[in-house]
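Same chain as my last thread, 432 residues:
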Amino acid sequence: MPDPHAGDVTVVGAGLIGLFSAHYLLERGYDVTLLERGTAGGGAARVNGGWVCPARSDPLPSWGVVRDGVRSLARPYGGSFFLGARALPHVAGYLGRFVLSSGAHRFERSWDELDVLNRQTAGLIDELVEAGIVSGLQDEGFLMVHPTREQAEASWASLSAVSRRGLSPAPEPVVGRGELLELEPGLGEAARFGFVHRGDRWLDPSRLVDRLVGSAISRGARVVTETPVRAVRQRGSRVELATPAGVIEAGHVVIAAGAWSEELLRPIGVRGYVTPGKGYSFTVHPERPPRHVLRLGDTHVGVTPMGDRTRVLGLVELDGTHEGVHTERIALMKRQAAPYLTGIDWDASTDEAVGARPMTPDGKPLIGCVPGAERIVVATGHNMLGLSLGAATGVLVAAFVAKGPAAAVPAFDPMRFTRRHGLGSARARAHD
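reply #2:
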């Protein structure tokens, strides 16, 4: 039952994590205000692939990604993970910790820890469907296509291992081109072998943002846009937020500002190393639109059907900025995808966009109270998994607001990098 005396909470950020947090805070009876620096659903919230994919929600840091990043410095128009040479001084702290998190043991441990949230995803999304907030959820499966049987079988073996984590069924058998064309007539010549993997679902993320905003407003929440928060500080039993319009007070504050969170975290002593990782997407209109999500060989390019349009997505770019489309990245994605698809005028693509994802060095989010300022709750750093992990994060955020540090999940401790940095008390960090 909602608590009518729950108090007031201000959520900084109206992206997916902020909106999911607001949803579950409203369920507990809190008076909620969302402050958004731009428009609701900015950043990567509307321009992602729409995947609700707990089976695929693994951490990014791995030796393969490290390899791609290093190669991109010398060969900037290949691979899937790009590092801008000029940005290296600005992301060095993040990259050093990323490399340390990329070993096989650390990768597996981080994935196990992410599954604390992943295991809640399907049930929570089903509840949101029943509540009318999630609509248009698709579950026809992900179709993995490859140019050779060897690559398809290696992918099949990898996803078979993933299925043993218990979040998806085993992939269906590998089939050849004839059966692939029965599944997807619009596949190109590069799609010679492949298989369907079920269990993960997808939706239109922009529609989800609109429904979360509408639901929050209908239950009394205030959504204030074009209002950046410059600083957050706890004073006794209240929290102050500095904005261009003046100081706003709240009983609790949730920092869910996505890739912009670090500028709020550092002054209060949290070194999260939250770094913007730019993800690219654009829209095409195939003559024969796909019915499945498509994963195109080893290109790391994905294709998501979204009603009357098809979204192509991929790449992670760290160039030290939050925005700005590099057209050569879009061109690369088109070159990679073109052999796998037919009936597409690639020159007629629309909605070319970039979304800044909040990347952390170990691929796990920062969720928890700030020591010494427990009325400030951190909820950021979801990397490329904000949609999949958003609902479970919202439930956890509401628990932190209600219970304080007693709700702590050590794997997501927002201070885990700060403590390793060797700084002193929370108060000392706030003045560092």
